[in-house]
Design goal:
Layout: H1 15-26, H2 28-65, H3 67-71, E1 73-77, E2 83-87, E3 94-102, E4 108-110, E5 124-134, E6 141-144, E7 151-155, H4 162-171, E8 176-183, E9 186-193, E10 201-208, E11 233-236, E12 241-245, E13 248-252, E14 256-261, E15 264-268, E16 276-282, H5 284-308, E17 311-312, E18 317-318, H6 325-339, E19 356-358, E20 364-366, H7 368-377, H8 379-387, H9 398-410, H10 415-488, H11 500-505
Antiparallel strand pairs: 1-16, 2-15, 3-12, 3-16, 4-9, 4-11, 5-6, 5-7, 5-10, 8-9, 12-13, 14-15, 17-18, 19-20
Length: 506
């Protein structure tokens, strides 16, 4: 807050202007510190951006030197509406002929029609068991599913309507789902397996609280046994999917055949009348994208260093990092990696051999046809040129080198990290110096104001004395002038006798 003062009012001096100018001179060291802080902040931001670009380059190089990059695969189906295919990293490459004879399905049963969803069915228990029917298509027995536990659903007089029985079955998590289907005949309870496959068929044993001996009335109407008589009707049979892969017959409880070949999953969608061709190949597009990503990140980094370290001859001014040894050293190391050949591959020794070269501006360019030729003709040798991790630099792949260079720059003890920490320490010292100067300047201004307040008081006193003397001299001068005028007018001072000679003379 600005200090409210009346300094200068009494003396007429422009004290505020004098103090302001004096303090402006006193603030010069602080101004220099503030200017230095602005430059440090700018340089700190530039090093931060440089670190970001270097990290991106490191990450792109790391992706190309990763084993996972070179194990990525892609897949294709000649009829995706019938057979879908997906692969995981490291899937076995190959071609497959797939024919689908049958899809896996769930068991579905339905009750006879009831008047409405709120119709009372009856009370008792429904025991639901998962398993498979033997002797299909005309079942003769039931085999419980291994690991499955029968679930008993208790129906009381409070929840014995069709819709409440549906809700209790669904809440029991017995491996089936229940719905109600309404049509012109009424409301039917429909129950189906939660999962496909022959082993996920089910049997329902109904036990009434008061058995009337009839399976067509009460809760007995919701019992089902495919090997005997039942009030409920089986609408769909639970079966396994059946297909042939390269002439080999395969079955599955699910229509998703996971890892049917190493790392490959087939999704059966409909029966086919012939073979569907499925291919699993190396993902060359992933490598192409990885190379393009690396070139982009390298060029962003190189261009930034060049821009930040340049000197403008016209403006006679250097950029933010002009002359910065850390930035210039990093650019030199980047070019050094490019220029040093590699013995990792027996076919390729330089990046230019596979279409990656440096132009006159120090930026990388890619000849895609040359890289694709290497991918299709010498993929393993290309991998070595990029990703080989050896004990010596000369025997290591280029992306392995760039990754290591990036790490050495941005890791906790890296060059850029150290540079950033150094700038941060400088800014902290600068802040402390500014705080000290702010305190010193506040004291200096207070001292100057005290001095000028004393001067103002002294000058005000002198000014008052001067005014008094001036007034007295003015009064004295005024009296003398009056006497003179009186004499000139022939008057005499009161009480003085009039001389005759004076009268005659007059």
């Amino acid at each position: 807050m600005a200090t409210i003062t009346s300094t200068g009012v009494g003396s007429g001096l422009d004290v505020e202007s004098i103090v302001s100018k004096l303090m402006s001179l006193e603030r010069r060291p602080l101004n220099l510190l503030e200017n230095a802080e602005a430059k440090l902040q700018t340089k700190f931001s530039a090093i931060g951006q440089l670190t970001s670009y270097t990290s991106s380059m490191r990450d792109a190089a790391n992706a190309l030197s990763s084993v996972l990059m070179w194990k990525q695969t892609t897949s294709n189906s000649s009829d995706n509406t019938a057979v879908g295919v997906s692969t995981e990293t490291g899937a076995t490459l190959g071609n497959y002929a797939v024919q689908v004879q049958r899809l896996a399905s769930t068991q579905t049963v339905s009750s006879s029609a009831f008047a409405s969803t709120t119709a009372v069915v009856g009370s008792g228990t429904l025991k639901i068991e998962l398993g498979s029917w033997t002797g299909e298509p005309t079942p003769t027995g039931f085999t419980a599913k291994s690991g499955a536990t029968p679930v008993t659903v208790t129906i009381t007089d409070q929840d014995n309507t069709l819709e409440k029985i549906r809700d209790k079955i669904n809440a029991s998590k017995a491996g089936v789902t229940a719905t109600i289907v309404n049509d012109a005949s009424g409301a039917r309870l429909s129950i189906r397996s939660a999962e496909t496959g022959a082993e996920n068929a089910f049997r329902i044993t109904a036990t009434e609280t008061e058995d009337d001996g009839s399976s067509s009335t009460g809760l007995s109407t919701l019992g089902f046994d495919a090997a005997g008589s039942s009030a409920m009707t089986r609408n769909q049979t639970a079966v396994n999917a059946q297909a042939t892969i390269n002439g080999i017959s395969v079955t599955s409880a699910s229509n998703t055949l996971k890892n049917v070949a190493d790392g490959m999953t087939l999704t059966l969608k409909k029966p086919t009348t012939g073979d569907i061709d499925v291919a699993v190949t190396a993902d060359d597009e992933a490598v192409m994208k990885g190379v393009n990503d690396f070139i982009t990140s390298f060029n962003n980094l190189a261009a930034y260093i060049k821009e930040q370290t340049k000197y403008d001859e016209t403006a006679k001014q250097g950029a933010t990092l002009q002359g910065d040894r850390t930035a210039l050293g990093l650019l030199s190391q980047l070019r050094g990696v490019i220029n040093e050949g590699s013995t990792a591959s027996t076919v390729y020794s330089r990046l230019s051999d596979v279409g990656i070269s440096m132009d006159a501006n120090g930026l990388l360019t890619l000849k895609e046809s040359k890289l694709k030729e290497a991918l299709t003709g010498n993929r393993e040798e290309l991998r070595k040129l990029f990703a080989a991790d050896a004990s010596t630099t000369g025997a290591s792949g280029f992306m392995d080198r760039f990754r290591d260079l990036g790490r050495s720059a941005v890791d906790s003890e890296g060059l850029l990290t150290a540079r950033s920490d150094g700038l941060k320490a400088e800014m902290e010292r600068n802040d402390k110096s500014q705080e000290a100067w702010e305190t010193r300047l506040a004291l200096t201004e207070a001292r100057i104001r005290r001095q000028y307040q004393a001067l103002d008081a002294s000058m005000s006193t002198l000014s008052g004395l001067s005014s008094y003397v001036t007034q007295q001299l003015a009064a004295l001068s005024s009296g003398t002038d009056q006497v003179r005028r009186d004499r000139q007018a022939g008057r005499h001072a009161p009480g003085r006798p009039h001389r005759a000679g004076a009268a005659v003379a007059a």
